[in-house]
Design a protein that fits this description.
The protein has ten helices and ten strands. By secondary structure, the protein is α/β, with parallel strands linked by helices. The chain has a domain of about 160 residues: 2-enoyl-CoA Hydratase, Chain A, domain 1 (Alpha-Beta Complex). Strand 8 and strand 9 form a beta hairpin. Helix 2 packs parallel to helix 3 and helix 7 packs antiparallel against helix 8. The two termini are about 15 Å apart.
Length: about 260
């Protein structure tokens, strides 16, 4: 599932090389491998859920364990949640989410649907605080920005407060806060289903940290930081990781860069 790729002779050869490496990795690990590698023009959406389900429906999945290789900047949190639940239902054994480079925002939500997340030194996750589009500017506003705005407003009074309230495109603060709670609940549900099946409080703590615990939406949650957060993180044997990394680098150089 290489989303957003325009097929050219060069890309076709790259896809063949990637498929060959993934086939070898699947044999070594005894798993079914689902690559979710997205270029910068695509994001996790409700339509993308249908695309992935098509792939799963038309695949002969004989292995109990499933590896999902994710590279994505994010997208719609509800779509990511739905996709994670589908994978949780389909996988009869261990569901492993592998992040060679990054799975940010909603893609982190997706990754948290696994039994474990595989990371290494170049891997990164990101905060899952949802973003809303400002209807006036068209810009996306993160949860941390909204919370900072609320704090700023609370410190104002008199004419300045009145003027600011008139100028604000009413950033749908109430809507955003309820959305944060919704995403946090979705994340907790995913964590409770597999990674922290009998550890509700642990799942709640991690969900809160990932949704409201960072001041910047673009924060890189590295291998070391992900372990500090409390997620179940694994690393692969070198030979296996080298294959994962080779697949990603082919994708990055031949698809993302060359196009």
């Amino acid at each position: 599932m290489y989303s957003g790729i325009k097929l050219s002779p060069e890309n076709s050869r790259a896809l063949e090389d990637m498929a060959r490496e993934l086939e070898e990795l699947a044999k070594i690990r005894g798993t079914f491998i689902l690559p979710i590698l997205m270029d910068e023009t695509r994001s996790i959406s409700h339509y993308f859920v249908s695309e992935v389900y098509d792939r799963l429906l038309n695949s002969s999945i004989t292995a109990k364990n499933i590896d999902v290789i994710i590279h994505s900047a994010g997208g719609d949190a509800d779509a990511a949640y739905h996709l994670a639940t589908i994978l949780q239902e389909i996988c009869e054994g261990k569901l492993t989410m592998i992040v060679p480079r990054y799975a940010k925002s909603a893609a982190t939500l997706l990754a948290c649907g696994g039994d474990v997340v595989v990371m290494d030194l170049p891997s990164e996750l990101g905060p899952i605080d949802p973003q809303l589009e400002d209807p006036v500017t068209g810009r996306y506003i993160s949860g941390s920005s909204v919370r900072n705005t609320i704090k700023y407003i609370q410190e104002l009074s008199g004419p300045l407060l009145k003027e600011l309230c008139q100028r604000l495109p009413v950033i749908q603060i109430g809507d955003h806060e309820s959305l944060v709670e919704h995403v946090e609940e979705c994340l907790k549900e995913l964590l409770c289903e597999r990674m922290f099946k009998d550890e509700t409080e642990k799942a709640k703590e991690i969900a809160e940290k990932l949704t409201t615990g960072y001041s910047y939406h673009g924060r890189a949650i590295t291998l070391r930081e992900a372990k500090k957060v409390g997620l179940k993180i694994e690393t692969l044997p070198r030979d296996q990781w080298q294959k994962v990394w080779k697949v990603f680098r082919i994708f990055e150089k031949e698809v993302l860069v060359r196009g």
